[in-house]
Amino acid sequence: MCMVIFAPLFAIFAFATCGGYTGQLMVSVDCVNRTDSNLSITVRFAYPFRLNQVTFTVPTCEGRQQEQLHLNGDFSSSAEFFVTIGVFAFLYSLFATVVYIFYQNKYRENNRGPFIDFIVTVVFSFMWLVGSSAWAKALSDVKLATDPGEVLLLMSACKVQTNKCGSVYGPVWSGLNTSVVFGYLNFILWAGNIWFVFKETGWHKGGAARYPTPAPEKQAAAFNQQPYNQPNYNQCTFGQTGASFGENGGFGQSDYSQVGTYTLSGPTSY
Ligand SMILES: *[C@@H]1O[C@H](CO)[C@@H](O)[C@H](O)[C@H]1NC(C)=O
Ligand SMILES: *[C@@H]1O[C@H](CO)[C@@H](O)[C@H](O)[C@H]1NC(C)=O
After folding, report:
1. Within a domain: 264
2. % of the chain at pLDDT higher than 70
3. Least confident of 16-20, 24-28, 220-224
4. Which residues pair with 24 in a beta bridge?
5. Average pLDDT, the chain
6. From the CB of 40, is ligand 1 less than 6 Å away?
7. Greater confidence, 244 or 67?
8. Residue with CA closest to ligand 1 atom 2
9. Which ligand is nearest to the CA of 162?
């Protein structure tokens, strides 16, 4: 669990932009007999995109008669699935952050915390991928179904050549496009985190411990020497901070000075 800041934030962006969406489009029907016309027919729709329940009334251009129409399609399952994943990912990442920061010992007890965290992270990654793909597909269908040109095709008045039908404006999609982008960003974030959570489980320990310490990257050597079962703060987003903690001797070194014989940077340990 090292996505402390990004995971809840990205989840909020994904589900809020989708779940909070309302859109509208406007078309005009200009009948031969002008008194029957309606030049500002407004159709409003919103999350969860049960478009077949969105009704609107349009003139038929035959006297005062009007007809009631509805849009086509029901995209609620994909939209609700996506938002549900977002809400649960948000809640879980908040919960995991609290556990990781404040209950570090409990988290590591019997390795249960890392194990559960690993499983949940894998599941959420998969869910984000499935949910984002389903929602992306549904969104392209929603765009088609609410295209003013498509809506005009539903109207009997517009099948008569002498009536003039036109699109005034279509829905704004930036919010929903954002939700899809953040859906995939969440997938990348969670999938990328699998590796870090996997390291926490210690399943790779057996192999890794046998290798001589390669002292990778810019980290202080002292920090690499710390036992693997200690809280390993210098991962993922904490990477640079963790390293600098080590060099200043303020955080890591005093605790692990027994392994400090190998340090390159720690005069305090001698
Ligand atoms: C045109 O349609 C809108 C709804 O789309 C309705 O509110 C308005 O009253 C209609 N105008 C006329 C002149 O019928
Ligand atoms: C136009 O419509 C009005 C009311 O619906 C009707 O009284 C009138 O006769 C119609 N005019 C034509 C030319 O059809």
Report:
1. no
2. 74
3. 220-224
4. 44
5. 79
6. yes
7. 67
8. 41
9. 2
Decide if 251 is inside a domain.
Answer: no
Q: Is the shortest distance between the CB of 29 and ligand 1 below 6 Å?
A: no
Domain count of the fold of the chain: 1
Q: What separation in Å is there between the alpha carbon of 43 and the centre of ligand 1?
A: 10
Residue 254 lies in a domain: no
Question: 145-172 pLDDT, tens per residue?
Answer: 999 999 999 999 999 999 999 999 999 9
Q: Which residue's structure tokens are 């605790």?
A: 255
| CA 65–ligand 1 middle distance (angstroms) | 13
> 202 or 234: which carries more pLDDT confidence?
202
- Distance CA(193)–CA(100), nearest Å, equals 14
Q: Atom 5 in ligand 2: which residue has the minimum CA distance?
A: 63
Read off the pLDDT band of 206 (50, 70, 90).
low
Tokens of 96: 């995991």
- Out of 28, 30, 43, 57, give the residue to mutate to test ligand 1, the one with the largest number of ligand atoms within 8 Å of its CB: 57
Task: Give the domain extent around 106.
Answer: 2-209
- In this structure, are residues 219 and 242 in contact, taking their beta carbons and an 8 Å threshold? yes
Is 267 a member of any domain?
A: no
E strand spans, the chain = 22-30, 38-46, 55-59, 66-70, 164-169
CA proximity to 220, closest of 268, 269, 270, 265 = 265
